[in-house]
Design brief:
Elements (H helix, E strand, L loop, with lengths): L1 H31 L3 E6 L8 E6 L2 E8 L2 E6 L13 E3 L2 E3 L6 E3 L5 E3 L8 E2 L1 E4 L2 E5 L1
Antiparallel strand pairs: 1-11, 2-3, 3-4, 4-9, 5-6, 6-7, 7-8, 10-11
């Protein structure tokens, strides 16, 4: 009886691992199909400011640092608060709920309690339009 339970657990683990690997492959494939989308005009976001925007169902934090634009996930990886409701100090966005801090150029966590980084999105400017790949 015990041997049968162990085999069941082992096979379930294999199925789960295979399912997770397939999901990762599909997510990677989906990211390849992403394209740049207009999200704001340059005059909507002055230097040193940030703004929350939803693109294709994804909440993104757009930041203007000295005329260069950056985009990371807008939902804190700690407790899902919106970073756009927090503060910007230099190139660090701080979550309003528990104070997690993220580098807006890379999404890297620079202060907890969050430990998972934010996704960083590619940004480009075409004329007056700020575009993000999402």
């Amino acid at each position: 009886m015990l041997q049968g339970q162990i085999n069941h657990i082992f096979l379930s683990t294999i199925k789960l691992t295979t399912s997770q690997e397939n999901r990762k492959k599909n997510m990677t494939w989906e990211r390849c199909k992403l394209s740049f989308v207009n999200i704001a005009s340059k005059n909507e976001l002055t230097e040193g400011k940030m703004k929350g925007i939803t693109v294709n169902g994804i909440s993104i934090l757009l930041v203007n640092l000295q005329g260069k634009y950056y985009a990371i996930g807008n939902i804190c990886t700690h407790m899902a608060c919106k970073l756009s409701n927090g503060s910007l100090q230099g190139d660090i966005a701080q979550c309003p709920c528990h104070g997690s801090r993220f580098e807006v150029k890379t999404g890297k966590v620079v202060g907890g309690p969050a430990f998972k980084p934010e996704t960083a999105y590619q940004v480009k400017v075409e004329g007056d339009q700020i575009q993000v790949k999402a």
